[in-house]
Amino acid sequence: MRFVSIKVLALFVISLLIASCGYKTSENINKQKKNVLFIAVDDLRLQAGIYGQSQMITPAIDELGNDGVVFNRAYCSVPVCGASRASLLSGLRPTSKRFVNYHTWKDKDAPDVTSIPKWFKENGYTTLSRGKIYHHSDDDLEAWSEEPYIPAAGISWRSYITEESRKIIEANKNPKNPDQVKGPPFEMADVEDNAYPDGMLTDKVIEDLNQFAKSKEPFFLGVGFWKPHLPFNAPKKYWDLYSEEDIQLADNPFMPQNAPKKAKTDWYELRGMYAGIPKEGPVSDELARQLIHGYYACVSYTDAQIGKVLKELKRLGLDKNTVVVLWGDHGWHLGEHGLWCKHCNFDKVMKAPLMFKAPGMKEGKKSNTLVEFIDIYPTLCDLAGIDMPEHLDGKSLQPVLNNPSKIHKDTVFTRYHSGESVITKRYVYTEWKKKNGNKVNMLYDHSNDPDENINVADNPKYEEVVKELSLKINKNHD
């Protein structure tokens, strides 16, 4: 009888140990899973201090870059938000029929492909969408653990809140389309940060971080800031950071020499959607300075929100186990080549910010290797320690994060409608094919023309370069 009691007792102790070990193992697995803070910024060009620019005030982005690895030559797949985001989030290259324009839906163009957040969700993460992650907030809904959060303020998605803006909207009402909102291209209200959506978004994200600090669950937190997207609406204190007379205008407000007509855009996003913009021709220098001032103010506004989020991440101790990636969905023109907005195949809009910070990763490093946004998906899998899905077109950046001088790719691709571009260390080449089989093209030699002011595609000196790069585009063609 005594033997049985000892045996039962031993079995009981063993079962307790097994249960205890099982609990600890599960807890350790969760601890080993690195969280992901996935920060997207709309229309952000390479003009933060970390990129060597002195015109904009961006302490939070600069600090993040100094704590991680910054990529100086990262290229979006398509220089327009809907297509760029769908491509990045799915890990797929665009084609002539997939991820084409701003109205792109991932669910329509690649419905059977598992996106980054969906993959992390399937790997045991709580996934949250806050702000603008996809262009459409109800795209890829199965990827998220709860309904996406979209803050709203003021009039329409443009979030006008001043009486002056309201009057301009009323004065520009279209009788044929009374629901159309055509307001000013910028607004400066003397309000707190959370009077506008990006400040409201920051408050929500800070709440989320505090909840995750309590729950200890692994998370993928998507945080998408709208600004500096038009209209350039930001609290007055961010406008006050800059003096308009100090604003520098683009020093090449003209189309490149020999550039084809296909290269030019009418920047309808600004010209056609906002009041006070000339219907044709350039904007005045005075208006150009106001627009650039507004863009800078909005970047500093978003930078401040990013700073608040990163500060809270650190205060909660979550930074010790969180991968942070910051990216802009594409660049933006501020009068270069006489252009505004994106929607073209010039380097300033195809290239956009990208930086990573992760526990144990190198700090304060910059990489000049060529990178594509489709490389973000496999990189996050590597950094988080989870397997990759098989469909990915990109290539993990982890070797570069360990050694920023390493060459990642010698060629990257981007496209906008029928314009297909290939970028190498030295050249940016674009061609548009016509239905009759002919083509128009442009080639810029960044070794002596980094601002792309002279199209040398027809220069006999570059004949072999054009042939080689055209062949690369054809090989990459769908």
TrEMBL record:
This is DUF4976 domain-containing protein. PROSITE patterns: PROKAR_LIPOPROTEIN. Residues 34-386 form the Sulfatase N-terminal domain. The keyword Membrane does not apply. Its cofactor is Ca(2+). It comes from the Bacteria. Keywords: Calcium, Hydrolase, Metal-binding, Signal. Belongs to the sulfatase family. It holds the Pfam family Sulfatase.
